[in-house]
Amino acid sequence: MIKIKLLLFISMIIFLGLLISRTSSFYFDSVKGANNIMKLTEWKPAESKLEIIKDDLVYSIEENIVDQNPTIFLQNLTTQENQYLSFQYKIESDEDALGFDDPNFILSINNDTVFTDNVNPGIWQRTFINLKDYKSNDGRYLIDFITKNTFDEIKPPSLYIQEISTAKFLAKKNDLLKFNISKSNSKLHLKYSVDENGAIVSKHQILLEPFEFLVSEQFLNNEVEYYSVDSFGNVENSKYATIYTDFTLPNKIEELNCFNESDQELSITFTAPHDDFSNQPILYESAISSTEVLESTDWNLLEQINPVNFKKFGVSNLSSNGGALENLLFQNINPEKNYFSIKSIDQAGNISEISSCFR
Question: Which residue from 31, 112, 200, 302 has the highest number of Cβ atoms inside 10 Å of its Cβ?
C-alpha cells in the first residue's frame, strides 16, 4: 500500500512538471494559508516605460498626433509635459531654376514664429522643435507650416511635410534614459548599435534599479530596443524608441562687433554660426556684465538681455542660416555694464562657447 501511494505521489509530481515545462503562460506561486497549497497564477511580464531627462526636465516620447493635415496645420495638438515635435520638410519651386525664388520655410506655434529656414529647394530637411519652450496656458498648440518668398513670384513654392511625430527625441551627450518598471527585482535589457571606426558594433546593456542609462554614444539608425525580464524569467515584448543624437556644439559666434548707439542702446553684428546637425543654431542668448565672462558656468550670474529689433518674419532671437549676417539691437540696458556676451543653442540643447565684446 505504501508503494502504491508513493507511486501515485511521484506520478503527480511528474504530471505537474510536464504541465510547467509545456507552457510559458503560467508559473507556480506558493501561498501561505491554513495549509500550504500551490496556486496557478497567470503569467504577466513586467511593464517598462521610457522617460528621458534633459537638463533636469522629464520628457515623454509618446505619440500624440492622430489626425493630421501636415501641409497646412496641426490644430489643438496636446502633448505630455515636455516633448519634441519632429518632422521633415521640403520646398519645391518652378521659379528657382530662373533665379527668381528665395523660398523660406516658417514654423508657427500659437501664432508665434518659432523656426525659420532659408531652404535650398528640393532637399528634405529634418528639424526638432522643443515644445516646452512654446507651451500655451491651456497646454494646446496650433501649429502652422508656412512657405514664403522673399521676392515677387509668379508661382508660389510648394511645401511638403512628412514623418511628423511627437514620438521621436533629440538627445545630447549626458541626457539620461530612465526606465520605470512595474515589478521590483526586475532587469532592463537595452540594445543598440554604434559605428566604431566604420564597423557596426551591437551593444547589450543590462540595467538594474534605478534603471538609468547615460547617453554617451550615438545610436546607429537612431533606434534603441528595450525590454524587461522579471525575477521569474518572464520576458516583456521588445519596445523600440527613436532617439537621434547630436553631440556637437554649435560653432562659436565669430566676427562679433558692438556699436554704442547711446548709453542705453547697443547694436551688434556677427556672422551666424553653423551647426552640423541643422546648419543653424536654434536660439541666441545674450547678456551684459561689468567684467568679461567666458566660462559657461558663470552665465547665470550675468544680466540677461533680449534684442528689441525684429528680423525677418517678426522674429528677434531666432537664428538665421549659418554664414548669414546678423544685426541685433538692444535698448534700455545698464550703461555701467560694458561687456556684451552672446552664445547660441542648437535643437538638442548643446550650447556654444561664449563670445564677447567691449562696448
Answer: 302
